[in-house]
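wait is this the right file?? whatever heres the structure
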């Protein structure tokens, strides 16, 4: 419930005065609709369609009595004219209110989307390591829609409640006994129906879980489609999908059945109540006929409101788990927040390093408190404008070390110093702004080469783009593409070969003019000729840029000024390439031996 209130507050924050105008509009429209119907019966009495004395009925008499001054022959025309005006006015207001409704509802969805996405972008990398990406997609699609719709529904519920309360007052005025009786019955039905609310909430829990599995599964399947096709595991995936869809279908049908069961209870209760009501009015309380007609009109309008309240409340109860998911994500993002403002992050200046980066005694565990260290007591230094190579077996801790060096994750113990100083948070961001990082799994957007390049350096001109492409040995193949720079690359660059993708990502990294260039297995998919071209280009960068290279193919690091050999989260050897390869007992020369043709 507290989550629901929190999002109602957010809606108030977002919509401001517009929301109140809308709520008042909804209430006024309900009143106009009510007045039209209430007046219909006495008005028909007035023009003699049936006999009815409205003099004793409060409110109605005030509205109907002045009509008696109109000559009898003109009454029908005036009445119908008035009725038409009233309903037209109501329809006009309804139209305006529907438009405002749409604006507020869709605006609120946009507001929530931006808010959650901003929260995610402001969170640190450790947060993303802990969570499944598809869960974010799930919250930002299914859950967010359920939350925004139900928040709005909750507000509409409040106007329905207000309108119902006014009608109850009116009915009390007409007959306290009968109204009290109906209210007690209504309350009894509501108490009985509370089990439907509980059931809806349980179904909602399953809805959340199933939708999460659906998005997660779909993301995995589409990402792994090549594996699915090449290993011919289509049937297994379809069977998993079919089972999940079956459970989703069952879940939705269950909710529909819960709603229809509660509506059935309300319908049966209404017919029992009305029969009892008419019987008691006529036989026991002897209520005047005109009051009885009005009360029946009022309650025939009021009772559907009760059942609508029940249905709406079930809908909200079904969405309560979505409120929790969204609130949890917001809370976790806030706890992992590293950036106060994305604008400030974009406008900041890159750090200009004078001496280099140093790590002192750093340790890191992914499973905080667990026994396995990804890095343990690592100390090293990376002098400015030199090339440092980090090598070691798979799982030795190379990528973790890079993540710590650039401040993506914080070490559990030890410190990272730049030019001998511990970095403040802001300095950490400045450091990241001066870095271009090409990861093991290079990422290209489903956009043109030009757009992919400009993401890194929006101000870069055509000539700078070609220069970067030349650096990464991609100029030739890009010129041969039918649309050149404007060739669209497909999902994650699927229309390019692995090596071509790596080269475009490298060009993007260079275009940013970084002072620190980090290449994590960035040339692993290249043929020897293109790799040699990039080696040559990197050599030319030496002395101007600090380069850190992670490489399994040791031929690529021959020109490194320093080689660090990592094993099991520790630096076990360090020195120049030739120095380490000459140490025949060391791990590095053993690694070299494994690679044919790479012996020093
Ligand atoms: N997100 C993660 N969650 C849990 N453990 C992780 C995570 N990432 C890495 N590890 C573990 O931390 C250790 C170091 O991993 P890291 O990726 O730094 O190794 P690496 O030397 O870069 O390996 P590779 O050459 O295969 O990329 C490994 O034991 C790995 O299983």
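ok assuming it is, sequence goes like this
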């Amino acid at each position: 419930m507290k989550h629901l209130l929190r999002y109602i507050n957010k809606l108030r924050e977002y919509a401001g005065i517009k929301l109140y105008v809308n709520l008042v509009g909804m209430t006024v429209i309900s009143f106009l609709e009510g007045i039209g119907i209430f007046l219909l019966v006495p008005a028909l009495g007035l023009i003699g369609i049936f006999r009815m004395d409205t003099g004793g009925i409060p409110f109605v008499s005030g509205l109907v009595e002045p009509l008696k001054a109109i000559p009898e022959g003109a009454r029908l025309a005036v009445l119908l004219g008035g009725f038409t005006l009233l309903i037209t006015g109501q329809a006009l207001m309804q139209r305006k209110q529907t438009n405002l409704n749409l604006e507020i509802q869709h605006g609120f969805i946009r507001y929530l989307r931006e808010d959650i996405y901003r929260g995610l972008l402001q969170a640190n990398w450790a947060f993303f390591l802990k969570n499944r990406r598809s869960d974010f997609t799930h919250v930002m699609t299914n859950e967010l829609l359920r939350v925004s719709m139900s928040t709005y529904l909750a507000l509409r519920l409040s106007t329905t409640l207000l309108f119902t309360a006014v009608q109850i007052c009116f009915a009390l005025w007409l007959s306290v006994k009968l109204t009290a009786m109906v209210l007690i019955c209504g309350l009894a039905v509501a108490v009985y129906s509370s089990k439907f609310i509980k059931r809806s909430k349980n179904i909602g829990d399953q809805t959340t879980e199933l939708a999460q599995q659906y998005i997660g599964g779909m993301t995995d399947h589409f990402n792994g489609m090549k594996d699915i096709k090449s290993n011919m595991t289509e049937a297994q995936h379809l069977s998993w999908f079919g089972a999940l869809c079956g459970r989703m279908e069952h879940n939705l049908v269950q909710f529909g059945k819960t709603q229809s069961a509660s509506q059935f209870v309300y319908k049966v209760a209404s017919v029992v109540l009305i029969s009892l009501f008419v019987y008691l009015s006529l036989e026991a309380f002897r209520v005047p006929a005109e009051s009885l007609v009005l009360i029946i009109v009022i309650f025939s309008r009021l009772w559907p409101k009760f059942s609508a309240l029940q249905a709406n409340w079930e809908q909200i109860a079904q969405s309560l788990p979505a409120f929790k998911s969204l609130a949890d994500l917001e809370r976790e993002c806030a706890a992992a927040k590293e950036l106060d403002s994305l604008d400030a992050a974009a406008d900041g200046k890159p750090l200009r390093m004078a001496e280099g980066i140093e790590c002192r005694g750093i340790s890191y565990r992914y499973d905080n408190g667990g026994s396995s260290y990804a890095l343990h007591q690592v100390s090293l230094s990376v002098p400015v404008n030199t090339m440092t190579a980090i090598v070691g077996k798979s799982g030795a801790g190379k990528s973790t070390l890079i993540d710590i060096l650039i401040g993506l994750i914080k070490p559990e113990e030890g410190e990272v110093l730049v030019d001998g100083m511990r970095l403040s948070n802001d300095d950490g961001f400045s450091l990241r702004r001066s870095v271009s990082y090409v990861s093991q799994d290079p990422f290209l957007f489903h956009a043109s080469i030009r757009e992919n390049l400009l993401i890194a350096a929006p101000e870069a001109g055509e000539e700078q783009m070609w220069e970067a492409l030349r650096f990464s040995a991609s100029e030739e193949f890009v010129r041969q593409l039918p649309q050149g720079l404007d060739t669209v690359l497909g999902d994650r660059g699927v229309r390019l070969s692995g090596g071509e993708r790596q080269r475009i990502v490298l060009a993007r990294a260079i275009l940013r003019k970084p002072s620190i260039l980090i290449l994590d297995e960035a040339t692993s998919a290249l043929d020897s000729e293109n790799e040699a071209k990039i080696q040559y280009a990197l050599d030319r960068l030496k002395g101007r840029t600090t380069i850190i290279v992670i490489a399994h193919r040791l031929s690529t690091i021959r020109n490194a000024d320093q080689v660090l050999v990592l094993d099991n989260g520790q630096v076990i050897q360090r020195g120049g390439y030739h120095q380490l390869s000459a140490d025949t007992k060391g791990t590095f020369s053993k690694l070299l031996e494994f690679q044919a043709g790479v012996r020093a």
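The chain has a mean pLDDT of 84. so i think its the right one actually
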